[in-house]
Amino acid sequence: MRKPLASTINIMSMSWAGIFSAHGEAFDIMQEGTFKFYGKDVKYSHEPMSLLAAGILKSPSLLVRNSITMVVFSIWVLFTHPRPGNKYAPRFYEYPLLLVKALNVIWTIGVVMGPVMWAEM
C-alpha cells in the first residue's frame, strides 16, 4: 500500500534535487521554466505541491504527467521568452540552435528521472 506513495515522493524529491542543484544549460532552462510555470497561478502549482507535501496525492502517473508538463513549458519559455541580457524574444534564425537546446533538455530530464524511476518501480 505504501509503494505508490513512497515511490512518488522519492522520485519527485530525487529528480527535483538533481534538476535544481545541477549546473548547465539544460538545467538552467528547466529551472527557469519551472519557476515561471509555478509563478503563473496557484492552479498550476497545486498538483506538484500536493505530490510533494506529505504525499497528499500519491500517483506516479500524475508525477510523470507533471514532469512532462514542466519540460514542455520550459521548452516553450525557451522559444518565446527573452534570454537574460536581451529584451526581445528569440529571432527566427535562432530557432535551429534552440531546437538543439530543447532536445538537450528532453535528454537531460530522461537522464535525471529515468534511473530514479527505474529504481523505484
TrEMBL record:
Domain of life of the native organism: Eukaryota
Major localization listed first in the record, in broad terms: endoplasmic reticulum
Molecular function in Gene Ontology: flavin adenine dinucleotide binding; squalene monooxygenase activity
Record has RNA-binding as a keyword: no
GO-annotated biological processes: ergosterol biosynthetic process
Bilayer topology annotation: Multi-pass membrane protein
EC numbers: 1.14.14.17
Keywords associated with the record: Endoplasmic reticulum, FAD, Flavoprotein, Membrane, Microsome, Oxidoreductase, Transmembrane, Transmembrane helix
Matching InterPro entries: Squalene_epoxidase, Squalene_monox
Domain Squalene epoxidase residues, every copy: 2-80
Signal sequence annotation: none
Subcellular location per the Swiss-Prot or TrEMBL entry: Endoplasmic reticulum membrane; Microsome membrane
Cellular component terms per the entry's GO annotation: endoplasmic reticulum membrane
Positions in coiled-coil regions: none
Cofactor(s) required, per the database record: FAD
Known catalytic reactions: squalene + reduced [NADPH--hemoprotein reductase] + O2 = (S)-2,3-epoxysqualene + oxidized [NADPH--hemoprotein reductase] + H2O + H(+)
Ranges annotated as spanning the membrane: 99-119
Functional note: Catalyzes the stereospecific oxidation of squalene to (S)-2,3-epoxysqualene, and is considered to be a rate-limiting enzyme in steroid biosynthesis.
Family, similarity comment: Belongs to the squalene monooxygenase family.
Protein name: Squalene monooxygenase
Protein source organism: Suillus fuscotomentosus
